[in-house]
Every structure is written in structure tokens, then in C-alpha cells.
Amino acid sequence: MSDDSFFREVNEEIRQEKAKALWDRFGPAAIVVAVLVVIGTGLFVAWEYWVETRANRSGDEFSHALSLANSGKADEALAAFEALEKDGYGAYPLLARMRAATVQADKGDFKAAVAGFDEVAADTSIPSAIRDIARLRAALLLVDHGTYADVSGRVEALTNDTNPLRHSAREALGLAAWKDGKSTDALKLFEQISTDDGAPRNARQRANVMAELIRGSGNAS
Questions:
Q1: Burial class (CB in 10 A: 0-12, 13-18, 19+), 162
Q2: Which range is least confidently modeled, 30-34, 113-117, 185-189?
Q3: End-to-end CA distance of the chain
Q4: 171, 200 contact by CB (below 8 A)
Q5: What pLDDT score was predicted for residue 89?
Q6: Alpha-carbon distance values, 4 to 8, 12, 16, 18, 136 (Å)
Q7: What is the predicted pLDDT for the residue at 134?
Q8: What is the distance between the alpha carbons of residues 168 and 185, in angstroms, rounded to a whole number?
Q9: C-alpha–C-alpha distance, residues 62 and 65, integer Å
Q10: How many helices (H) and strands (E) does the chain have?
Q11: From the CA atom positions of the chain, what is the Rg in Å?
């Protein structure tokens, strides 16, 4: 036997001994880790399937409720939205609450609609942006079905220069002020909208019309 062959055999025996020692030391732990990885992967896949299934089911239920509402079946739609609010998944319960309030308004029950939006606005578990939208929706209904104080109490805080809803909030408050005989306050609010480059074009156009109407009436100082 040559020296090279001898050294190769010795090296091979050493490697085998090391491999056996490593297996004796870490083999059982490696098996446990492998089993845990397989189980964990299976559980994750099952969880993803469960989440996707619930989300798809809630989406289908929401679409069905919308179809009922759009077909004029208000009471059936409200029942569907109520069920979704209780048992829905993800964002669908919140969407159901908001849409249910809209259905109440469409059927002429403005008190219930405002109460629905107010409940969303008061729920601190909901993102603040959604709560602000709920306040605005309630205020817009109250322009025709409430008082200036009702509208102001919901959107006054939304009229500051940095709030993204300021244009709609100012418009709602301006209309309520004009309705309540506060022409000067109303004119100021409409002028804020018309001179705000960030306001949508339609909002500026409506504000200009209202400002001209108030100035033409001679009631604003």
C-alpha cells in the first residue's frame, strides 16, 4: 500500500469517526428541529388558508349586502350588514358599520344614520382617519337635519389648515352657518375653500357660487 492510499484511508476513517460523533451528539436534536420545521410549515399554510377563506367569505357577504342595498332592499341589507359586523373578518365589519349608516340615510332614517356614524367616530379602536370620515358623514347629514351646533360639534376640529378633510368640513360648516343665518361666518368658510389651491376644483366652484350668493344677499359684513 502506498503512502497516499494509507493516508486517504486514515483520513476517511477519521471523517467517519467525526461524523459518527457529531451524529451521536446532535443527531436527535436535528431530527426534532426538522420535525418542528415541517409541523410549523404545515400550520402556517393552514393558517394562511383559514385567513384567506374567512376574508373571501366576508367579501362575498359584503358584496351581497351591497347588492341588496342597491336593489332597494334596505331592511334586508341592514340585516346582512349587521351579521357581517358581528361575524365578519378583517376590515369588513367596519365597512359594514359605515355602509349600514348610509343605508339608514337612504331610507330616510337620518337619526339612526347619524347615530351609526357617531358610534364609529367614538370607537377608539378604529383608525383616526376613518373616525374623521364618520364625523364628516354625520355632519353632512346634519346640515339638513340638525343645527349649526350639531354640525360644528363634529367637524370644527377638521377645518384646520393641515387636515386632509378640511375642504369638505368647511363646506359642511359653511352651509350650516348660512342656514342658521351666520352669513359672515359662512362667507369666511367658503372663501377659505375657494382660495385654497389644495381644494378640489368642484369644491372651489361650489364655494365660489355660495360666496357670490351670500355677497349678493347683502347679509354678510
A1: exposed
A2: 30-34
A3: 116
A4: no
A5: 83
A6: 6, 12, 18, 21, 88
A7: 95
A8: 16
A9: 5
A10: 9, 0
A11: 33
- The amino acid present at 211, given as its one-letter code, is A
* Cβ-contact 71, 80 below 8 angstroms: no
* pLDDT, tens digit (0-9, with 9 covering 90-100), for 168-197: 999 999 999 999 999 999 999 999 999 998
Question: Which three three-digit cell numbers place residue 1?
Answer: 500500500
Average pLDDT value over all residues in the chain:
84
Cα(206)–Cα(211) distance, integer angstroms: 9
> Could you tell me the three cell numbers for 207?
364655494
Residues 6+ apart with CB under 8 A from 128: none
What is the model's pTM?
A: 0.74
Amino acid at site 195 = T
Alpha carbon dihedral 102, 103, 108, 111, in 10-degree steps, equals -60
CB 211 within 8 A of CB 187: yes
Going by C-alpha positions, the residue among 183, 131, 70 that lies closest to residue 62 is 70
**In 35-64, which positions are buried (b, 16+ CB within 10 angstroms) versus exposed (e)?**
eeeeeeeeeeeeeeeeeeeeeeebbebbee
Tell me the residue type at 79.
Answer: A
Q: Kindly state the cell numbers that stand for 47.
A: 393558517
C-alpha cell belonging to residue 109: 332614517
